[in-house]
Amino acid sequence: MTTTHSAEADAPEFPMPRAARCPFDPPPEAKAKQEEGPLARVRLWDGRTPWLVTRYAEQRALMADPRVSSDIRRPGYPSPAPVTGEGSKISFILMDDPEHARLRRMVTAPFAVRRVAAMRPAIQKIVDDLIDEMLAGPKPVDLVEAFALPVPSLVICELLGVPYSDHDFFQDNSKVMIRQTTAVEQRQAAIGALAAYLDELVGAKLTEPGDDLLSGLASRVEAGELTRAEAAQMGVLLLVAGHETTANMIALGTLALLEHPEQLARLRDTDDEKLVSTAVEELLRYLNITHNGRRRVATEDIEIAGETIKAGEGIILANDIGNRDPEVFADPDRLDVGRDARRHIAFGFGVHQCLGQSLARLELQVVYSTLYRRIPTLRAATELDEIPFKHDGAVYGVYELPVTW
Amino acid sequence: MKVVVDEDRCCGAGSCAMVAPEVFDQREDDGIVVLLDAEPTDGLRATVREAADLCPAGAITLGDA
Ligand code: HEM
């Protein structure tokens, strides 16, 4: 008992800072906790002291455990930022089964492996056209704005049936929504604006359906399977998750490769699709852009690694350090595009594992196998320590990346 | 090797269809797992094992045939 109490009193603040010179590595303090043991206590912004799960095996086990809840409405949930707790306004990423499964299954088909694979030519064209534009334009250019953000935005707009011409509106609101330092009212306003926008779109699809995901949701609203608010909420989740994450993997991945020129050369000089796909998995593992951990709460007492996580206690699964666990990945801090990293948990684990993973993989495969070949002299137009990293983001990355060639 | 899938547990993440498309597919209407081959040949052993290991929902069970 006493040990637990002092562990709680001494709990270090979370999230922890990265080392200044190592923008691609997880915080050293988190790695130190991992070496000490599989479980630790940390202190959040609101003074709560949830468990931090540090190792791959325990993380995977807990994310797959039905006694572990994703429901943000539960009192012990270790929220990364203040929430207003309006239950009706959450999407299925923050719900448990069976509610979660019912909603997730309604939008799973368009993200199935074969359906996504059929999008390859369309994605290749988007990537090629954007590179053409970049090559024809002035340099240096911000890779985030000219390429990393437009690629996944164009793709997800096409899939959902959202007009890309509205991209300034939804990209700006997404940014506010996922910035951890955003004030509560501001975040609520951004979510509200996106929900109203998606609600209007769903309404338009009711009268004029197309061949897209939102039209599919609209027809379910008509059939009474779904409320219009639920449909809009799912639309917000898919739109935001669909472009923010992949955009960060494109820009941060490119920067990581530029900093590891021998790895970049392997990728640039290959025709081997297999090497391209191992490189994608390795960059997902190495960068683990969802860097603030998966957030959960125990619904029953759970015995694990000699400790008891009590019912109602918060749990943070730090998948960034899980993906650097030396028990699972040899020499884990080394970026090696040829390694077999498919067991990584950058997409999470359990029933909430990323719905868009096949799409994200394909986008990244097309990008990584095209960009460096078409611009072989691509380089950063500024020093590493001048680049603004998203330390305050729910998703890690760079705010901008000036490049030239 | 015998393969059993649990459609109720499946969350349609698609890992199985990615690593072992000879054995696993996804339903057209909701992306849930379809077992194409319940007794895959020895040559597919390693990939089917990997598919079961990667399944985030624990929906794939392997047994000896
Ligand atoms: C490289 C890019 C991506 C990364 C690293 C990523 C990462 C993740 C992670 C870690 C989760 C699990 C959340 C949790 O367990 O708490 C997740 C869930 C999710 N992702 Fe992604 N994601 C990416 C791209 C995408 C794309 C392109 C989409 C397309 C719409 C998407 C849609 C979703 C959705 C809907 C969920 C919620 C699933 C659920 O709760 O059942 N993601 N993602």
UniProtKB/TrEMBL annotation, chain B:
One of its GO terms (molecular function) is electron transfer activity. Residues 1-29 form the 4Fe-4S ferredoxin-type domain. It holds the Pfam family Fer4_13. Its cofactor is [3Fe-4S] cluster. InterPro entries: 3Fe4S_ferredoxin, 4Fe4S_Fe-S-bd, Fe-S_cluster_ET. Keywords: 3Fe-4S, Electron transport, Iron, Iron-sulfur, Metal-binding, Transport. Transmembrane segments: none annotated. Gene3D superfamilies: 3.30.70.20. Ferredoxins are iron-sulfur proteins that transfer electrons in a wide variety of metabolic reactions. PANTHER family: FERREDOXIN (PTHR36923:SF3). This is Ferredoxin.
